[in-house]
Design goal:
The chain contains ten helices and nine strands. The protein has 366 residues and is of the alpha+beta class. It has a five-stranded antiparallel beta sheet, covered by helices on one side. A two-stranded antiparallel ribbon has the order 6-7. Residues 95-366 form the Protein kinase domain.
């Protein structure tokens, strides 16, 4: 055996050990570099996963915010109420008009679509008149539509523009038709739908009242149904603004058959007049019938509203009869009907209605 093999401290052995250590060091350095790269890749993947999770959470949050008031599964067969995207077109030439959806005393509403996205919208056209009243109607509707954009059960406006002779409001299209048409088609609605629709009307009215707005023309013809089956209250041209709490306003506005007794008597009134109109609408949803005697002319109808009790079909059940109520109308100045039920309070709200046992299955907190 050579001296190099025998002597561990020999130069040859040291050289071989040094080469071995250097090789091992290079391998260790390479492994460390690979480990560092893998750690960096893992960190990047973790960051990507975190970003995706955050995006998903934001989407869920937006979806939750768009869904409006929650209704328990036992009551609501509908999909969540989602706001459609806002079209960018701001001139009438940017739309294709398809057909007339309806006409009123102040103008007409047409179905249209945007030239770029083909999104369906409803365009309300109002002919400008030199009378000051007409311009007040246009400006009032524009102001209230801006407020209405904050609630899922009020019709949303996308744009307002004008020419020299006409004013235009581009609004979301409620493809489900009017509540009036729904009642006429089905004769009367099932209790489940009555509760569902009336709950959403209550939410919409409470939102308007909290912003000092009285609608003054609540009726089935001014309530539309969206493609998801949700309520959309519209037509704010007759609304009163700046009426908060116990404050009152005046003026004979609205549709004759839905006007509250104070309006017929041309007295001061509060937001309670909307709850009267809501009560008439509720009765028509539930029974398919108007609760007062129509008579042969408007004077007969007015007399019935002021002096008579509302009447209901004999076939309605006890639960529905309780919801509608049946009280005397001898002195409306001291009482307010909410809905066909009089409550001794100068400034009633929908809270009186939602306390009824019929609404116990409704989730009012969004």
């Amino acid at each position: 055996m050579s001296s190099e093999e025998r002597d561990p401290g020999s130069p040859g052995r040291k050289r071989r050990r040094s080469e071995s250590e250097e090789s091992w060091g290079r391998k260790k350095s390479k492994k460390s570099e690979e480990t560092a790269n893998k750690s960096e890749e893992t960190a990047n993947k973790s960051e990507e996963t975190a970003n995706k999770s955050e995006e998903t959470a934001n989407k869920r949050k937006r979806s939750s915010n768009d869904s409006g008031t929650d209704i328990e599964e036992g009551i609501s067969p509908k999909r969540p109420c989602r706001a459609p995207p806002r079209p960018l077109s701001l001139t009438i030439s940017s739309y294709t008009l398809h057909c007339v959806l309806g006409r009123g005393s102040y103008g007409k509403v047409a179905l249209a679509s945007t030239a770029t996205t083909n999104q369906l919208v409803a365009i309300k056209t109002i002919l400008k008149r030199p009378q000051k009243e007409n311009m007040e109607y246009i400006l009032r509707e524009a102001r209230v539509l801006r407020v209405a954009a904050g609630h899922p059960y009020l019709c949303r406006a996308y744009a307002a523009f004008q020419t020299q002779t006409r004013a235009f409001f581009t609004m979301e299209y409620a493809s489900g038709g009017s509540l009036e048409l729904e009642i006429r088609k089905r004769k009367h609605l099932k209790m489940r739908k009555v509760i569902f629709y009336s709950a959403e009307i209550i939410c919409g009215l409470q939102y308007l009242h909290s912003h000092g707005i009285i609608h003054r023309d609540i009726k089935p013809g001014n309530i539309m149904l969206s493609s998801e089956g949700h309520i959309k209250i519209l037509d704010f041209g007759l609304a009163a603004e700046g009426v908060y709490g116990d404050s009152t306003t005046n003026g004979r506005f609205g549709t004759f058959a839905y006007m509250a007794p104070e309006v017929h008597r041309e007295k001061e009134y509060s937001a309670a007049v909307d709850w009267w109109s809501y009560g008439i609408t509720l009765c028509q949803m539930a029974t398919g019938q108007y609760p007062f005697h129509l008579g042969n002319n408007l004077q007969d109808l007015r007399r019935s509203i002021l002096r008579e009790q509302p009447t209901y079909p004999a076939w309605i059940g006890r639960k529905l009869h309780r919801l509608l109520g049946k009280q005397s109308v001898e002195d409306f100045d001291e009482c307010v009907m909410t809905p066909m039920q009089f409550v001794e309070d100068p400034a009633p709200s929908g809270n009186y209605i939602i306390k009824d046992f019929s609404y116990q299955s409704v989730g009012w907190e969004a």
